[in-house]
Design a protein that fits this description.
The chain is α/β, with parallel strands linked by helices. It has 2 domains: 5-182, 3-Layer(aba) Sandwich (Rossmann fold); 190-274, N-(1-d-carboxylethyl)-l-norvaline Dehydrogenase, domain 2, CATH 1.10.1040.10. The chain is 47% helix and 14% strand. It is built from 11 helices and 8 strands. Helix 1 packs across helix 2 (36-55) and helix 7 (189-205) crosses helix 9 (228-235). The protein is globular, with a radius of gyration of 19 Å. The model has no long low-confidence stretch (mean pLDDT 97). Bound molecules: 3-hydroxybutanoyl-coenzyme A. 3-hydroxybutanoyl-coenzyme A (3HC) is lined by residues 49, 52, 56, 58, 119, 142-144, 146-148, 189-190, 193, 225-226, 231, 235, 239. The site of 3-hydroxybutanoyl-coenzyme A (3HC) has 19 residues, from helix 2, helix 7 and helix 9.
Length: 284
């Protein structure tokens, strides 16, 4: 199957990034969210990113205009009826994702692939909401989408070889490298990354070192581009907590228990960069 029409469901940080990359590499993109305000915000962030690339002379103004012309906005899930693939990047909540997939299954054409950018939830469980589980797959992009080279492709229990092949080819056409992963909580990326972040939070909680010094250890000692606490703020502490809960519940091992300090910050609404406060203060 030749993919031309791509719908991205969810116009937040990840959805907007995926839409931008797809438009850059020649796909016609429909960026969808439930509220007009959300899609407008997503488009605004894409425009801002592209303007930055124009200012750095990485792309020309006419490239930017061309990319933006390929992006259409949607607030009606019915618009999935003209798509070849739908990539869902909505909030990380299994009930919400299941409901989106049930709707997509009603409207999307029979040939369409339904992909999810979930960071840890079960592809198999999401696929079971549809009558096409062989066409449901995980397509996990990393943040920031334009910069990070990896797409983790996750096969649900029923995902067909053909679906896998088409999605891999599409990800490669976006100049990404892919890895093939089986459906298990957190897949590979977050199974390894999140316990490290959670451990860094325990290290703050137990007063072993300051936030800045913990980050410094991993940056200068291990050559990580960002310290784990900066990275947690960048990902969103609510997302980090949700992934740890998914690991703990899904694997059934308390070694994945979320640090109480992480819970406390999320309860306080300190969700990281997006709310101006997390392990660091972004109010300035
Ligand atoms: N959004 C979009 N692009 C960004 C960005 C942002 N927030 N921050 C930086 N960039 C871009 C810059 O525009 C620049 O692009 P260019 O090379 O085309 O000019 C490039 O990234 C490098 O930026 P800088 O030179 O200003 O800054 P750094 O060298 O410090 O790199 C970084 C920034 C790429 C974000 C780097 O710090 C990094 O790699 N951090 C780790 C990111 C990471 O681990 N991501 C995975 C998160 S986990 C995940 O996504 C899974 C999910 O399920 C939780």
């Amino acid at each position: 199957m030749d993919i031309q029409q791509v719908m991205v469901v969810g116009a937040g940080q990840m959805g907007a990034g995926i839409a931008q990359v797809c438009a850059t590499y020649g796909y016609n993109v429909t960026l969808h969210d439930i509220e007009e305000e959300h899609v407008e915000k997503g488009l605004k962030s894409i425009r801002k990113q592209l303007e930055r690339q124009v200012n750095k002379k990485q792309i020309s103004q006419s490239d930017m205009d061309r990319f933006l012309q390929r992006i259409h906005l949607s607030t009606k899930i019915r618009n999935s009826e003209s798509q070849d693939i739908i990539i869902e990047a909505a909030v990380e909540n299994i009930e919400i994702k299941k409901s989106i997939f049930a709707d997509l299954d009603k409207f999307a054409p029979d040939h369409a692939i339904l992909a999810t950018n979930t960071s840890s939830l079960s592809i198999t469980e999401i696929a079971a909401e549809t009558k096409r589980p062989e066409k449901v797959i995980g397509m996990h992009f990393m943040n920031p989408v334009r910069v990070m080279k990896l797409v983790e492709i996750i096969r649900g229990l029923a995902t067909s070889d053909e679906t896998f092949r088409v999605v891999k080819k599409m990800a490669e056409s976006l100049n990404k490298s892919t890895v093939e992963v089986n459906d298990f909580p957190g897949f590979v990326s977050n199974r390894i990354l999140m316990p490290m972040i959670n451990e860094a939070i325990y290290t703050v909680f137990e007063g072993v070192a300051t936030v800045e010094d913990i980050d410094e250890v991993m940056k200068l000692g291990m050559n990580h581009p960002m310290g784990p606490l900066t990275l947690a703020d960048f990902i969103g502490l609510d997302t980090c907590l949700y992934i740890m809960e998914t690991l703990q519940e899904g694997i059934g091992d308390d070694k994945y228990r979320p640090c109480p300090l992480l819970r406390k910050y999320v309860k306080a609404g300190w969700l990281g960069k997006k709310t101006g406060r997390g392990f660091y203060n972004y109010s300035n």
